[in-house]
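Data deposition worksheet. Section B asks for the primary sequence of the deposited chain exactly as it was used as input, without tags or linkers unless they were present during the calculation. Section C holds the resulting structure in token form. Section D is free text for depositor observations; keep each observation to a single sentence. Incomplete worksheets are returned to the depositor.
Section A, Depositor: J.P.
Section B:
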Amino acid sequence: MRITKKQDRMPGIILTILLFVAEIAFTVLLLYTNLLSAKYIGIVFAVLLVLLLIDHLLIRKFRKQIRFWIGIILMVIILAVLGIASFYIYKTVSALDDITGVNKEITEINVYVKQDDAAQSLMDAASYSFGILADLDRENTDTALQQMASETGGEVSTKEYSSLTELADGLLKGDCQAIVLNRAYLDVFDEIDNYASFSSQIREIASEQVEKLVERNTPAPVQTDVQAEDSSDTTQDAAVTDQIYTIFVSGIDTRGDITASSRSDVNIVLTVNARTKQVLMISTPRDYYVPLSISNGVPDKLTHAGIYGINVCMDTLNMLYDTDINYYFRLNFAGFVQIIDALGGITVNSDYDFDSKNILGYHFNKGENYVNGEQALIFARERYAFQEGDRQRGKNQMEVIRGVVKKALSPEILTSYSSILSSLDGCFGTNITYEEIAQILQQQLTNGGDWTIVSYSVNGTGATEKPYSMSQKAYVMVPDYNTVDKAKSLMEKVRNGEVVTQEEADAPVGSTSESTDTQSVTEPGTVAAETATNADGTAADGATTDGAAATDGTTTDTTTQQ
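Section C:
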């Protein structure tokens, strides 16, 4: 049977149209993601059109079987590549959607009874007298009480207590039958002498979820180069643009959801200048003794700010560093393990040769160490092996972040891209929007270049004081404000586009010369505490072994990324 000219060309025309539609759909998908600039999307589309033309020339005549089938094979390859690329694009967008734009935080206000109490639910305890804290976290407690009243259909009888220990004693001694308490306070009990076992003596029978919006400081409008040259104002407001960000990185306790309020054991402020490609990491020790934004000037451990929500953490650090934190980035260190494993491990630099004090007893060499997720977590959380205790832990945490960033920017990431995206679920949360992330990625792809990462850790003096959130004295770190002032100066330089080197950050500063009423002590369980302890178990100077004093705020754990 003789094939007509129309019949000869029709298969090629149909297949070409199908391929063209697939390429158009892929291009639209790229436009929808907003991850590539119009320039790069145009380049991709142009390449696809060239491939379309080549393939059409091969398949346009059915009678030329060899060329036709070569064209079919090329078409299959093109469609396969487009399909695989679309899958990865979808996973990327889905992963970013899950972790970005998280502007809500959940505070768990739980109802607890004694372990041997008969009540199994809130309704069982409806007639109980509920102990509450008179002042601490009162806004969240009152909201929870309203929700409880709605659920039980009646008023909730309450009895107020002035401190955590009084609240605990009230329950254990039968002065009240149940207590209403922010779940995060259970970790605080672990820090209080004679109350470390309190969590094991009580049982949760109900949980009220109190939802809050995470507030955000909006960056100042974009400033043109002409405006910048004409302006004599060197303040932060004049320097901040849509390419300069201040981000709070919070590492929360390993328990609970990523959106749940919790003590913040990692407190790092990132100053990011996308124009100069500089990142400055400022680590603040968890025990830093500073007023919280809600404590009316009464100092507390910085870690306790997380009990009252991410807003309080950011506002407290804003007060300390005279800055405006635009965003937060929260990570769960337990989930962080799977990220590092998905990356295939990372390299961290250790200032010391040491063995971790946990049950696993990992050894880390001075210098470079290639670590998996579990090892990286232990490296980031260890403090008892060091003379500087929590200060060294902060340095190591920044080193882990640096190692992750370095690995994530390396070509090796392509081999495990899918597993990395899958591992993000439940590990991270940020109020940075998808659109803002997309803009940063566009800028990086357009401008290219390496980023410089510099780190600095503020210091202080160990002391025993009564924090705002606690009922008795505990180890705290009184800030050395010389190191705080240096941190402020470094932040301002990065914001203003000045080059900051690691050598400049490492340069020592003088310790505070102001006298304080606090007692210099050593951090519990650290090498400093062990070396300062006499044979009878008392500290060498007669003080309690609670903390260590340090005089400079330098770090040597990270270097400029090339």
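Section D:
The chain is about 40% helix and 20% strand.
The chain has a mean pLDDT of 83.
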